[in-house]
Amino acid sequence: SQTIHQWPATLVQPVGSPLSLECTVEGTSNPNLYWYRQAAGRGLQLLFYSVGIGQISSEVPQNLSASRPQDRQFILSSKKLLLSDSGFYLCAWSKQGARTDTQYFGPGTRLTVL
Amino acid sequence: GDSVTQMEGPVTLSEEAFLTINCTYTATGYPSLFWYVQYPGEGLQLLLKATKADDKGSNKGFEATYRKETTSFHLEKGSVQVSDSAVYFCALSDRGGNNRLAFGKGNQVVVIP
Fold first, then answer.
1. Distance (Å, rounded) from C-alpha A86 to C-alpha A75?
2. Is B45's CB within 8 Å of A107's CB?
3. What is the 8-class DSSP label of residue B67?
4. N or C: which end of chain A has fewer CB within 10 A?
């Protein structure tokens, strides 16, 4: 069966510090990968998605970036965090192909920027 | 673009009450529709889905029917339990090769014993 991992689970960082959140998927190959942010009291905002190694599409321009160095690894980064980057970050994966469109989510990372 | 609208505000109800959460959508083509549930401090779990008009998704006593004529996918449960307290998100997929999802804002459901 497939599993998705995210770490760290919780992170507290000062404004202006760098960020690296990691997501890995097991039990499948060549998945689509997604990063979402959930701000307090708000819905989910799609930040990035990837259909393959090195292929990243950005949904919202901001000070975050994403990379996919390996098939089942997806990393969310920032060089300098802002207060507004606080939130709950969720990684998700889906199988490729238009008829397999269910996304499966990881446990999330709670980021607080102070 | 494609979008999902959920009813405003949290939902508070007593145990064994009937639950309805409204969801309407705007989309070109024929999207797949989903309900996801998020328990406190956790990620999202797929609750149910429907891929074509008149399909009914069901799971754990929850149901939702894909209504193309009213562009709706309302979630219902006949008798809620305290353990159903969570945030519920309606979503649609554009069914393109990258399977992008558009989410509603979610509804907090609180079930009181």
1. 17
2. no
3. B
4. N
Residue B43 is nearest to which of A43, A100, A105, comparing CB atoms?
A105
> How many Å lie between the alpha carbon of A22 and the closest alpha carbon of chain B?
15
Which residue type sits at B13?
L
pLDDT value at B100 more than 70: yes
pLDDT digits (tens, 9 = 90+) for B2-52: 889 998 889 999 999 999 999 999 988 788 999 999 998 888 999 999 998
The answer to whether residues A57 and A46 touch, using CB atoms and an 8 Å cutoff, is: no
Single-letter code of the amino acid located at B89: F
CB A26 within 8 A of CB A44: no
Q: Which tens digits make up the pLDDT trace of A11-53? A: 999 999 999 999 999 999 999 999 999 887 677 889 999 989 9
